[in-house]
Write a structure and sequence with these properties.
This protein has 430 residues and is α/β, with parallel strands linked by helices. 45% of the residues lie in helices and 18% in strands. The chain has 2 domains: 228 residues, inorganic pyrophosphatase (n-terminal core), CATH 3.90.1640; 133 residues, Diaminopimelate Epimerase, Chain A, domain 1, CATH 3.10.310. Strand 1, helix 4 and strand 2 form a beta-alpha-beta unit. The radius of gyration is 21 Å and the shape is globular. The structure holds manganese (II) ion. The site of manganese (II) ion has 6 residues, from loops.
Length: 430
């Protein structure tokens, strides 16, 4: 373990030389290009549109400090999903510079079309992205340089590197990048890797974080919170995701600089309990009624039963149950949840939308990672496109999209068709 850490520290010890040697140098050209652009916007309004999970909240926190450093006071808009109806509302309301973070990588083209040259848009994301040629929309995403954003860099870390490339000031906030990375489970292989490790290393040097080895895993103790990163990340997600409808994400961004006050901590715990109750009830329901079954999928619809929790809940729920005894380990697990019509920071959206979350149980995950079964990063965007939906956050073993209500079964059929095509009739066996 020691050797493992030392190797990484050696490689990542200097952002200005060490890192460039072992990754595609173009990545830093992009960072520098984006940094130069953002620095050149004087006196413009800046709006940060961010995701509502721990990584998205940490991203918003780091970016807002960067904006402050550049002399702007940014406006924050927290959204659960990227969708044309939401993007339209945002671009109708605000001008100047709009930064999307921890989401939007795949939506650059759609955003560019809706934006129609009005604002300068940065998309700082670590999910799979499509490159775009535009004078107004710029995508900063390690996936475009062949670096996995799922494994080596969280959105919070990416924003940290962006900030860090502009000024050493950024180092003050290295601990926030660590929380974001852990929030996205980038420590799942035993510790954070790659760029996330670089941020961790800086946080250690700044005396913000201590690494503790616990059995087969590292845990990162955040001095500022007097608490471990995984625990802090969980509170942030409680506030941002469970408390989305109540705008608790505002508190979540605030606590990253001010710490938890009793009231906010209580709120987070209360939301956590509410989620636990809702999830428990849903597990009982699924155990009693079972899933809807396809050849390769098992799916369910929670309708509005998780309300007032945000629509991230259905993804968390899938994550929670994916390896439970009543779930088939070889089938893709898919959950649907109705999207509310009110987006707190934006207002009412004219839509009938459903959030889809897909997860791979561990058994299937192994097949996907070995390339035996197709990953969700391929299946979900394709199936959602086929029914006119929008995929934004897609990884190999976890992905989400938004489709129109009533198109759920059609989505499943498309999904099944795609798996069948990929497997060419083979069964999923190890
Ligand atoms: Mn993320």
């Amino acid at each position: 373990m020691r050797f493992f850490i030392a190797t990484y520290l050696f490689q990542l010890d200097n952002i200005n030389s060490g890192m460039e040697e072992f990754i595609d140098g173009r990545f830093f050209d992009w960072v520098d290009d984006a940094a130069a652009k953002i620095k050149s916007f004087k006196g413009e309004d800046i709006t940060i549109v961010h995701h509502n999970d721990a990584d998205g909240i940490c991203s918003a926190a780091i970016l807002s400090k960067l904006c402050e450093y550049l002399g702007h006071s940014p406006r924050l808009i927290c959204i659960e999903k990227v969708h044309p109806a939401i993007v339209e509302k945002i671009h109708e309301k605000v001008d100047g510079v709009i930064i999307y973070t921890d989401l939007g990588g795949l939506a650059a083209k759609m955003i560019d079309e809706i934006n129609a040259g009005r604002s300068y848009v940065f998309i700082i994301d670590h999910h799979p992205a499509k490159p775009i040629k535009s004078d107004h929309v710029f995508v900063l995403d390690p996936e475009l340089g062949g670096i996995s954003g799922d494994v080596f860099v969280s959105a919070a870390t990416l924003n940290y590197i962006f900030f860090r490339r502009i000024t050493e000031e950024a180092k003050k906030y290295a601990y926030i990048a660590v929380i974001g990375a852990v929030g996205d489970y980038h420590d799942r292989s035993g510790g954070v890797l790659g760029f996330d490790r670089f941020a961790l290393q800086e946080a250690i040097e700044e005396n913000q974080v201590k690494v503790k080895l616990e059995q087969y895993k590292e845990r990162y103790f955040i001095r500022f919170f007097n608490e471990y990163a995984d625990v802090v990340a969980k509170y942030l997600t409680d506030l941002g995701a469970c408390g989305y409808g109540m705008r608790c994400y505002r508190d979540a961004v605030r606590v990253l600089f001010e710490g938890f006050d009793e009231e906010t901590l209580e709120e987070a715990k209360k939301l956590d309990k509410l989620r636990e109750e809702k999830f428990h009830a849903e597990i009982e329901r699924l155990k009693a009624n079972g899933f809807n079954e396809g050849d390769y999928t098992q799916w369910f619809h929670v309708e509005d039963r998780f309300s007032p929790l945000g629509v991230k809940s259905v993804g968390e729920f899938c994550q929670l149950i994916k390896d439970m005894i009543f779930v088939d380990g070889k089938k893709y697990l898919i959950g649907f949840q109705n999207m509310p019509r009110i987006i707190p920071d934006i207002g009412e959206i004219e839509w009938n939308a459903v959030k889809m979350s897909g997860r791979a149980p561990t058994q299937l995950e192994r097949l996907i990672l070995r390339g035996v079964a197709p990953g969700l990063e391929l299946l979900v965007p394709e199936a959602s496109k086929a029914v006119g939906g929008f995929a934004d956050a897609t990884h190999k073993i976890a992905a989400a999209c938004v489709i129109e209500r009533g198109k759920e079964e059609e989505f499943i059929q498309e999904f099944e068709k795609l798996v069948r095509l990929e497997l060419k009739g083979r069964k999923l066996t190890e």
